[in-house]
Every structure is written in structure tokens, then in C-alpha cells.
Design a protein that fits this description.
The structure is a single chain. This protein has one domain: Hotdog Thioesterase (Thiol Ester Dehydrase, Chain A, Roll). The termini are far apart. Strands 1, 2, 3, 4, 5 and 6 form a 6-stranded mixed β-sheet that branches. The chain is built from 2 helices and 6 strands; from the N terminus they run E-H-E-E-E-E-H-E. The relative contact order is 0.23. The protein is globular and about 45 Å long. The chain is an alpha+beta fold and 151 residues long.
Length: 151
């Protein structure tokens, strides 16, 4: 059972005409766009609310190492969706993020997904340590986060 109260970050999306296929349902690839919108907004909000200047500035950047989506029900044109997001695990140079897609009209969970983001140096594309301020912000914001840092 998915506990929605564990997802404290939320954005809204509306299924647009160009996102549906010939069957009238939201195309499977579109969900990854919704996840990207949610990820970016989550990081922007975390950065702003916790005054983190060490991420997504200068040479700090995040890339996707793994992405997945499980489709449970279909979304159709003009459905209003809530994309709920949380960081579930922090490591040295990466973190795991999870998403739940809820149809606002029916309250049904229609998809769940997530991925792994790696913190890199933009210039040479090498992994770099997540800053301590990022750990602190995530641990303060989230209810439960697994931390597996190796010293």
C-alpha cells in the first residue's frame, strides 16, 4: 500500500492533446516528461527553501542514471494529474527519487515511477560528492530517507 502522506512535494499537470495517442490515452513516454518536471521543481524548491547554493550552480549538475515507470491506469485528454515526489535514498554521489501519479478527478493512482540521479561535475562529467547542505535539507524535508554514505 502506498502511503501518499509520505510524498510532501507535488506539482500538477494536465494531459494535453499532443500527449494522447490514437487510443485517446496519455502516451507512456509522456510520464517521463512529468517526472522530469517534478524532479526539477523539487530540486528548485529544495534549493530555494533551504538556501542551498552548492547544487545546480557552477559545475554542479545532476544526470539520470536510471529511470522507470509502472503504469497502473490510463490518463486521458484533459485529466488533471498530481505528480507526488520524494527522495527515498541518499548515497555519496547519487540519490533515488520516487514519483506517484494521481488522477485529481478520481483520486486513483495511475502510475508510479522513479529513478537514480547522479551528481556530476558539468565540465568533466565525473561524479562528485553531494554537499552536506543537500543531505541536511533532504533529511529535514522528507519523512523517511535511507542514507547509505560510505566514509
Amino acid at each position: 500500500m502506498i502511503e501518499l502522506s509520505n510524498y510532501k512535494h507535488k506539482i500538477k499537470e494536465t494531459v494535453k492533446f499532443h500527449e494522447v495517442d490514437l487510443l485517446g490515452v496519455c502516451n507512456n513516454a509522456v510520464y517521463f516528461n512529468y517526472f522530469e518536471d517534478a524532479r526539477i521543481k523539487y530540486l528548485q524548491d529544495l534549493k530555494a527553501n533551504y538556501k542551498i547554493s552548492e547544487i545546480m550552480e557552477g559545475n554542479s549538475f545532476f544526470i539520470i542514471a536510471h529511470n522507470y515507470c509502472d503504469y497502473l491506469l490510463s490518463a486521458t485528454l484533459d485529466d488533471e494529474l498530481e505528480i507526488l515526489t520524494k527522495i527515498s535514498r541518499l548515497k555519496n554521489t547519487s540519490f533515488e527519487i520516487e514519483h506517484i501519479v494521481v488522477n485529481s478527478f478520481t483520486d486513483d493512482i495511475i502510475a508510479k515511477g522513479g529513478g537514480v540521479l547522479v551528481h556530476i561535475n558539468k565540465e568533466d562529467k565525473t561524479k562528485i560528492q553531494l554537499p552536506e547542505s543537500f543531505y541536511n535539507a533532504v533529511l529535514d524535508f522528507e519523512n523517511e530517507v535511507e542514507v547509505t554514505k560510505k566514509e
